[in-house]
Structure formats: structure tokens, C-alpha cells
Amino acid sequence: MKYLCLIHRDDNVIAAMSQAEMTSLEEEYLAYDDELRKCGHYIVAEALQNGHDSTIVKIRNGKMIVTDGPFAETKEQLGGFFLIEARDLNEAIQVASRIPGARLGCVEVRAVRDSVKRAI
Amino acid sequence: MTNNIEVKVDEVYHAESRRVLATLIRLLGDFDLAEDALHDAFAAALEQWPRDGMPANPRAWLVSTGRFKAIDRMRKRARFDTSLEAIAERLDGNINEVTWNEKVFNDDQLRLIFTCCHPALPADARIALTLREVCGLTTEEIARAFISSASTVAQRIVRAKSKIRDAKIPYQVPERNELPERLDTVLHVIYLVFNEGYFASSGDSLTRSDLSGEAIRLGRLLMELLPEPEVIGLLALMLLHESRRKARTSSDGQIILLDQQDRSLWNQDHIAEGLQLVERALSTRRFGVYSLQAAIAAVHAQAKYADATDWDQIVGLYEVLFRLDPSPIVELNRAVAIAMKDGPDAGLQLIDKLISSGDLEDYNLIYAARADLCRRLGKKREARDAYKQALKLSRQEPERRFYERRLAELVE
User: Fold this and answer.
1) CA of A20 to nearest chain B CA: how many angstroms apart?
2) Domain segments of chain A: what residues?
3) Which residues in B lie closer than 8 A to residue A35 (C-beta atoms)?
4) pLDDT tens digits, one per residue of B183-213
5) Where does A2-119 sit in CATH, by number?
6) Hey, is B313 helix, strand or coil?
7) How buried is residue B274: exposed, middle or buried, by Cβ count under 10 Å (0-12/13-18/19+)?
8) Do A88 and B43 touch (CB under 8 A)?
């Protein structure tokens, strides 16, 4: 099954990190990408830019409305994601638990709906 | 060719993954590490077997590959988390050893079963852990079968594994002196899984019968590994119950009681195997409650039609069962058997005594039993009152429909 691991983090925490800490975190992410690729869990993963620079788009009455983000006014914002393949939810949780972001913020694990998968 | 090997790897996964996991848990000393290692070993098999051919002993290959991969993983992770260095060192240290024989693998499977069913774990965690680790069901499958959310089941499993780690629950088969008690917990888990599939009324009935099938498979595995009398008795009991599955509900989902069932629908293969196992369990003279319940089910299985049932023998077996397990439920069942043997009056007296003792006050089946005996004695009003009481206490839909049907038949 496919699972989407959403990494939520406080952008202020990231902003407060030293250059050396950032480099180390990035290296750790790259190493984990690599580990997941080798063992077949990896589908795709990306890190996102600061959540407060996001843009919201919606259509109402046929008209497009564009506003400043973020979508949710919470301290923690979506900072990146891993789309993974796992045998079941517990295996996905195990993979998610070792995403470096789990230590800094939290990782939300969402199962991909089967019917959607078939439609794609 | 490649496709062929992929099919082969898939077959090996189904046949061997649980045994490989059981051994990896022992070698690596940790459930999560072992599950990663199992995953890695099969990923490596998919890559290497098409190129190099199947190894002579796939199971041993998977275990040693999994172990090396785990060490490799730990070393890489230790670069970012120095607390893991010690684990990597330890794993690297006990790399020698290893004689692979059937006995080692069998013992590991038993270790896994006893650990998953450890009394220190909560009962629902034991069930979830056993179904996932020993039977190989996915979290989502377990959640569907128990009408629970995948997240709830997943958390239960995560917590159980943490408990095993933190409480340092040893990965071992209990010693002779504690075996009976520990085995009891294991048998209880298997029987709960079976009953969930056999008696529960809610949910998708197909998923439910799969659960009974899983319990029977588990019973067979345990018997192969540890042929204790009660293990044999439980397998017999499950098979004899399962033999009646087709006959116990009508096509529109109504309950059909034992005496009304079309016995030609009973599965004769299950019955033959069940009877043979009952005999084997009883002949050890070390049998317990499961073997005795199986023996009772065997008497029913041998009656060609309901009136041919040997009630003398059934009452006798309940007497022995009551001595081993003096519970009110057994007493109720014995009273029903006595009613069949000596007439409804005799049974009714026993049941009324049991009701007034208060032990089964909230148990709908005792009122259903009372109602049935009153009905047979022509005491319509009393029968109606008892069915109403049973209806009030029952939470299972088919059971409720059954009581409503009986009430409708009893209109004066």
C-alpha cells in the first residue's frame, strides 16, 4: 500500500538553526532518502519552502480568488513529504518514525485510497 | 525467467516470511529491527535471485542476508545518532554461531508466539500482535476484522512492542514448570480470534470467517510445534464448530439452532479430523477444558439427526468439565443438557436456581434457555417474559431477530 508521510514543523525552529545544523539535517535527509530507495519503500520525497510564503487558490461562482497563505493558521506548517510503499500501517509508521522531521516536529501518516490509486 | 523468479520469491514470502522474522527477532533482539531486516532480505532476494539463481536454502539465505543488512543499516544510522553505535557493535559481535536446522527455526516460531501472547501485554494487544507477527496479517486487515480503525490497531501494536522492549520481556519458550499457564494464554488468544470470526454478528461476514480460518491455521501451527493435549483439543474444538458454519445461519442471515440444522451441510472433512484429534487428546489423560468441550462437540457431530444425540454422554462430559472449570456458564450448559436428557422440568429447576444466584443476571442466553424450556412445557406467558428479557440484554442483531421471531410465534 502507498502512504503519504506529511512532515509538519514550526518554521521558526528551522529559521533558528545554525548553518552547521542545517547542513547536518540535510545530509541526514539525503541519507534517509538513500536508505529508503535501497529497501524499496521510496516513491518520492520533497522538502517545501517556508509555509508562510504560500499562495491559496480557490474558485467560487466560477471566479478565481487568490490570497496569501498559509492555509491553516497553526504554528506548525507542512514542511515536506515522503510518499512511500509499505506493507501496512505499522510498517509505514516505522518508516515515518525515522524521518528526521519526526524529531523536530511531527509526521502525519495518511494511507492513499485504493480507488484513487486505480484511477491514476 | 525474471517473472518466474518473482513468483517464486512471492511464494517464499508466503511460506517463509514468518519463520524468517521469528529467527531474526532472536538474532537482532528487537522486533522493529527484525522487520526492517526481513523487508531488506526480500528486497535483496528480488534483486539477486534472478541474477544468481535461487539459493539452496532460501530460508537460511534470507536470515543471514537480513542480519547483514540490519548491521549495515545500524552502522549508517549511527553516523547521525551515536547512541546506535553500541547496538551496531553488539549485532556485529554475535555474527558467528549458527547451525541451521528445523529445531532452531521451530523454537524461534514458538518464542514468537509466546512473546506475542505474553500475559504482561493487554489482551487486545496480544490478539493484534499475534495476527500481525505470527500470521502475517496487515494492520488494516486486523482492523477490518475487528471493526476498528487502522490507527487504533497500529497504536496498540506500537505500544505492545515498546512494552516488550522496555519491560525486557524475554524472547523464549517458557520453562516446563510455567508452560501450562503460559500455554493457556496462547490458547485463549487463538480461541478468541476463532470466536470473533464464528460468533460475532456485526461486520462483513466474509472477513469474519477468514478470522476463524486464521485461528485454525494458527492452531495447526501450534500443534505442529508443541503437540500438547490441550493444543490438540483446541484445534479439534475449532474444527468441529467450523464444520457447522454453513448450517448455522439461513440464506437471509437468521440463526438456525443445532437441533434444527440441516446436518447434510456439516463439513465431513472437518468432522473426521476433529473426531480423530479429540480421541488423540483424550487418550493422553492430561486433557483439559478445550479437549472436553471438543469431546462434547464430537458427540453432537456423531449424531445423524438431533433426536439421535447421546445426551447421557453429553451430561457426563459436562460433569467432568464442571469439575475442571466450575463456572456458571458451564453450569448453564450442563442444565440445558440435563433438560434434554431428563426433560424440560429438570432443566428449568436448575436454571432458575442459577438465575437466582445472580451470577448470570445480565447474560441473555440464560433467559433464552429458560424461555425455550417454558415454551416446551407450554408455559407461554413465562416463555414470553424470558424471551423479552433475553431481547433486552442481547446486542447481536441475528440473536435479537431470533428472539423476536420466537415472541411472534408465542402470541396467545
Assistant:
1) 14
2) 2-119
3) 73, 76-77
4) 999 999 999 899 888 876 455 555 567 889 9
5) 3.30.70.1060
6) helix
7) buried
8) no
